[in-house]
Amino acid sequence: MAEVIVVGGGPTGMMLAGELALAGVDVEILERRPTADLVGSRAGGIHSRTIEILDQRGIADRFLAAGHTAQTARFGATVLDIGDLPTRHPYGLALWQDRMEPILAGWVDELGVPTRRGAEVVGVDQDEDGVEARLADGAVVRARYLVGADGGRSLVRRQAGIAFPGSEATRSTLIAEVEVAEEPPTGMRQDATGVHGLLVAVYGTDFGVHSPVWISRFIDATRQAAEYRRGRILLAGTSPDALLDTYGAERHPAGARALEHSMAQTVLQRADDRTAALARTVDELVRMDEPRIRIAALIHGLDVMRVFALLHDARHLLLNLGEPGRFDGAALPHRVQLVDARHQGPWELPVIGSVPPPTALLVRPDGHVAWVDEDPARPMHDALARWRAGAELRRGSRQDR
Description:
By secondary structure, the protein is of the alpha+beta class. It has helices at about 10-20, 50-55, 60-65, 95-110, 155-160, 200-205, 245-270, 275-285, 290-300, 380-385, 390-395; strands at about 1-5, 25-30, 45, 70, 75, 80, 90-95, 115, 120-125, 130-135, 140-150, 165, 170-180, 190, 195, 210-220, 220-225, 230, 235, 315-320, 335-340, 345-350, 355, 360-365, 370.
């Protein structure tokens, strides 16, 4: 029996499974698609912070080699250049999802994560000791925890009874991957009726469109799960036992902020005269350095401190920037890596700006800072006890067998 079941073998599910495997947790992916093939191109790229996260695990080069870097952040109609932001990856990556997924699948295979394909989950039940996933073929898979990474129409969320409040849709967009007989104009056309690519009523021709690979529709409804955990069922992420509820407390506000920016973007894409006037005003503002850096950093997820090669094996990192040897590495837990380092001058962080470097900090496996020694009210051993409280989850896992 696996420690954790991940329902959904898309990018989110595979990345989560890989993170759990690096932490020594037995994890299995249940994916309803019978093969790894993805019909259509789907999502078109990833932001800078996602590239950084892949870099933390030592696999960013695989994705960079398969795609094309570009300035991809937009606010309204304005492209926000992040070339001058303090990051190793000051760009987005244009890479279709059907090329992205095989790279992630190769990584989780290397980590020994099993993926059960053709495993459509039709029901989820939990008790005090674990969770059962009922499959369409009648099989039942049991684990201590189950994570839903099965998209916006998540069956796991519904089965767990987690509400999905938010704003109703104000518009609907048809999107398709097709072949054309004539080369259409680059980009989209926006008018009072919407945003258009290949509409006869707008262009006077359909450019000989034929052979659709896939056709889909998306709307601008803005919703967020009311909670990220219900008992032993979680949505799109996981944490150690004692931190499962703090996972929601930490990530829910970040999700809410992303949705708020999405709603603002949607407003600026309307084409009436008043919105056009607002968009022109916003365009003038975001061309100034301070608002450009702030908004672009938020869009790309760069409003955090980052570490890369030192996190490839997903261990906690105790970074000592003070006197070398002041920490006893032998006294630290085995999943905490001690590194003595030096840094001259202030740290430059997007959004925040220059900050004085601390003399030591504890970095979580996900790259977020768990402790700095500038806070005497929170000694390091307390932070270690808090962020390593999930040792119970790994008991009996692969690394302990």
